[in-house]
From TrEMBL:
InterPro entries: Nucleotide-diphossugar_trans. It comes from the Bacteria. This is Glycosyl transferase family 2. CDD domains: CESA_CaSu_A2 (cd06437). It is found in: Golgi apparatus membrane. It comes from Salegentibacter salarius. GO terms for biological process: cell wall organization. Its main location: Golgi.
Length: 488
């Protein structure tokens, strides 16, 4: 039994180590990208002959709190009105339908080409709505924004010009966060998303590896969508799915780190949970659907396949971390009861390099937003350990999502409730879309909170503190997730 535990524990450490190596390479790519001057050819939008027709799609489902803010913001987009169409793809089933209808009517009176498009059912969920709108879209290029996104006035002027290169199928922009400092939960989410949008997206794009359209704040060439097989609702992350299918068809993606598109982060942990579940399950579904095709494609370089493996299995790291965490307490006892394994535990210390790599990668992304002062470095250290503690606290919930994805269990697309919250004075507690559920996973998380409390006690009992920081982070992380989940 001891040997089996050590073998599984080692395998988990090795997977995390190779994942960290992929992140280190992305860091090096990111640093190289910062030195490169963008020499992309671009449309001259001062020349009317070069201005293409654009359709903006706004997929909505029961967005009572944010739809007015969204539509008023989109109406301010700076682009020749005769070359712009707006589709409000409304799958709503509540009172927001009438509100949207009224707002669209008002905007039409200003001369805006805007349509309110509804369906009889939500087949295919968001992917189905986008596909339906695409059938009648007039635009050569299709910009997509979720309901909580607030693109700046010049967004199209900054993105459309890159499509002069006929091989570019997508231009994706970086997400910003209008309520980053609302709470510890929003700060943690911003920390994670900044890492993805600054280091990972830039690093993959510079290295010519596959990246993903992030579901919103990006713009597609209509021809690319159709050539890749159109939107499909057979995974929960239709954006990742279409991205991989498009790149397998040799379409290029352009990522614009310096074009920020502000959006709202979930402020309730139940909303964050539903979003995390969808993203993590969808990633696992996409690994199952697309990685085999990528692996077989002889035109795709080994480096791109290596990064795609960890890109699509990114969410599966939660399962690996959960296994590692659960086994860490038995490993602590094995270490103290079996002196003959001393050489092994000296060797295992090498894997601390994975933590160092993650530290450097996240710091590179953090400095883009917060600068490089000594004060910001201290804040980064605190946020780094807080983020990883809470991320490990989510590992049970996210591992269930990953397992469902790999095992092929289908589930509905659960939208993330929006709140229209941007300042500390805004409250979300009366949001009608919030559903407080006490699931089995919360019970498991509570049990693990006690379990890692025992792990901390064991450090004192055995006088061995080699895993104490790890167990403290797990204890804090599971405690945060459990106690935030059981209270409104």
């Amino acid at each position: 039994m001891d040997l089996a535990i050590i073998l599984i524990y080692t395998f988990a450490l090795l997977l995390i180590f190779f994942y960290s190596i992929s992140q280190l390479q992305l860091l090096l790519n990111y640093l190289k990208a910062k030195k490169q001057v963008d020499a992309s050819e671009k449309f001259n939008l001062q020349d009317p002959a070069e201005i293409p027709f654009v359709t903006i799609q706004l997929p909505l489902y029961n967005e009572l709190y944010v739809v007015e803010r969204l539509l008023k913001n989109i109406a301010k987009i700076d682009y020749p009105p005769e070359k712009l169409e707006i589709q409000v793809l409304d799958d709503s089933t509540d009172e927001s339908v009438k509100k949207i209808e009224m707002l669209v009517k008002q905007l039409k009176q200003t001369g805006l080409d805007i349509k309110h498009i509804t369906r009889k059912d939500r087949s295919g969920f968001k992917a189905g709505a986008l596909k339906e709108g695409l059938k009648i879209a007039k635009g050569e290029f299709i910009a997509i924004f979720d309901s909580d996104f607030l693109p700046k006035k010049d967004w199209l002027l900054q993105t459309v010009p890159y499509f002069k290169d006929p091989e570019i199928g997508v231009v994706q922009t970086r997400w910003g966060h209008i309520n980053r400092d609302y709470s510890l939960l929003t700060k943690i989410q911003a920390f994670a998303l900044d890492f993805h949008f600054i280091l990972e997206q830039t690093g993959r794009n510079f290295g010519r590896h596959f990246i993903n359209f992030n579901g919103t704040a990006g713009i597609w060439r209509k021809e690319c969508i159709l050539d890749a097989g159109n939107w499909s609702g057979d995974t929960l992350t239709e954006d990742l799915d279409l991205s991989y299918r498009a790149q397998l068809k040799n379409w290029k993606f352009k990522y614009l780190e310096d074009v920020e598109t502000p959006a709202e982060l979930p402020v309730a942990i139940s909303a964050a949970r539903s979003q995390q579940f969808r993203w993590n399950k969808g990633a696992a579904e996409n690994f199952k659907k697309n990685f085999k095709n990528l692996l077989k494609d002889k035109s795709v370089p080994f480096g791109t396949k290596f990064h795609a493996f960890f890109h699509l299995l990114n969410s599966s790291m939660f399962l690996i971390i959960l296994v590692l965490a659960v086994l860490s307490i038995p490993v602590l006892f094995i270490k103290n009861n079996n002196p003959q394994f001393g050489w092994y535990f000296n060797l295992v210390a090498f894997f601390l390099v994975s933590t160092l790599i993650f530290f450097l990668c996240y710091y590179a992304a953090y400095t883009k937003i917060h600068g490089k002062s000594f004060k910001s470095f201290l804040k980064f250290i605190a946020m780094f350990f807080t983020f990883f503690s809470v991320a490990m606290g989510f590992s049970v919930h996210n591992s269930l999502a990953v397992l469902e994805g790999h095992l092929g269990k289908k589930s509905a697309f659960i939208r993330t409730p929006k709140f229209n919250v941007s300042s500390l004075n805004d409250s979300w507690k009366k949001n009608i879309y919030i559903q407080q559920k006490f699931s089995l996973s919360i019970g498991v998380e509570f049990a693990l909170w006690l379990y890692f409390g025992f792990g901390l006690y064991s450090a004192f009992m055995l006088n061995d503190f080699s895993l104490a920081i790890f167990h403290l982070m797990l204890f804090i992380g599971f405690g945060f997730v459990v106690f935030r989940s059981v209270r409104i």
